[in-house]
Amino acid sequence: MAHQGQGPAGDRVELLMQVEGMTCAGCVEAVTRAIRRLDPEAAVAVDLGQGRVSVTTDAQAIDVAQVLQRAGYEARAMTG
Fold this sequence. Notes:
Largest sheet: 4 strands, antiparallel
Order of helices and strands: EHEEHE
Number of helices: 2
Shape: globular
Low-confidence stretches: 1-8
C-alpha cells in the first residue's frame, strides 16, 4: 500500500509517484539520481512503461515531487 509520507519523522514509507516525461534508460537514471540526492538511502524502482516510480524513503511525497520537477519531470503522488 502506498502512503503519502505522512508518518512521523524518520519513518520510511513507500510512495508511489506518477512521473510524466520519462522516455528512456537515461530518464530512469536521472530520476533515481534526483531522488537519491534528497535521500541517499531511498529504494527507487522505476516502471518506465507505466510512468510510475516507487520510492521507499523517509522524505515527504511533496519533497520527492519537487526534486523530480526540478530534474525536468512532472510528478505527483498517487493515492491508494
